Every structure is written in structure tokens, then in C-alpha cells.
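Q: What structure does this chain adopt?
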Amino acid sequence: MKKKSAQDAIISLKNINKSFPIELGGEQQVLFDINFTIMPGEFVAIMGPSGSGKSTCMNIIGALDTPTSGVYELYGRDVTGLTPDELATVRNEHIGFVFQQFNLLPKRSVLDNVMLPLMYRGMHMDERVRRAREMLKRVGLENFESYLPTQLSGGMKQRVAIARALAGEPKLILADEPTGALDSKMGHDILQFFKQLNKDLGITIVMITHEFDIAKYANRLIHIRDGKINYDGAIPRNDNNL
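A:
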């Protein structure tokens, strides 16, 4: 079996810096020389306290923002200097997103919500329906396709969001605080589902969290503090030294 190298990485961040303008003039730097690669099939948690820079890092990984300097390669392609429209295409074609607040359209059915990203691809209606139904079955919601999100529990809403993320058959899922709006039992179930997706389908999962108990579900932890990586490795026994 061929040994994987850095060239096979799904995500590669090289000397990433990010600054934002401030009201009184000048800039505030929030990321400092961020370097890491994520290989196909990894389940990685990016963790840090509020204000650490982890959300900014997530936005760059998700092609929602661009760095001030440095190079970001996704699937071996340098996406650093792409236009907003080009970044939108990258997001739609290559990344499945799962957000804390689900981001479902409340007046559209569960099936419509799952089909939404496929519509933006210009996919034929029959294929959109087929894929959406297949993904709803995968998350155990095949009998709820006509329901509205307002009729579902929090855990069911998040499973709809996961089905939507899977519908485009991405190799990468980016989950931003995916259990933040759920109770502990529902949160555990969703995280176990992520582990199963990672194991069974080989989908690369990058999860953003500020809680060590959530990060422990992953296989690797990247910890960010004050805009810098201060840990990158296997999940430690506890978070005392992070």
C-alpha cells in the first residue's frame, strides 16, 4: 500500500496569517503563522477558547474567508487568491457544512432542505430527489421528508443538516460547534454518528469546538490559543496542559 505523503493532503495551511481592520485605524492580527495538514480519512478537532482564532481558521478552511498572507491548498489546489464566486463554487462542490444552529429553511420541507445544495449545482430534479432520499435514509429520517424543520427535535434537525452536507458526496465535512444547540444525550448521538461516518465512509471530518469533552470524539486535536497552534497531535488524556 502506498504511504500517504503531504502531497495527498486534503487540507494544507502554510504560514497562514489573518488580520482585520479596526475602527480606530490599523489592523488586529488574529492568526499567526498557522501550519498544518489534514490527510484523507482523518477526524480532527480544532479547539480553542473564545477569541483564540479557531473560528477564523475554520472560515479559511471552509473557503468562507481568505488569509492575509500564506497559502491554503484544498485537495492540492491553491485556493488562496480565488474570487468570491470561485470560492462559492469550491464550497458547494467540495465541502459539506454542519453548523451549530442547523441553518435549515423553516418553511421548506426536510427533503427540500437536503436538496438545496444540489440545486445550486444545476443537478436534474430526479437526481436531486434520489440523492436527498438516500441521505435521509442514511441518517434514519426517511419517514420525515415532508416535515418542516419546526416539527423536528434539535437532534433530528442536526441529522437533516448532516444529510444535506452528505448529499453532495463531499470528501470533507466541516462541522462548526455541531452539538452547541443540543442537550448532552443528543450531542453524544450526533458525535457518534460523525465517528461512524468517518469510519464507514472514510469522510474527512474537521470539527470546531471549545470543549475538550467534544474534541475527544475526534482522533486528532489541533489546539489554538491567541492565534497560534500550541498543540497538534493525538487526543491527550486531559486538557490540563492545553
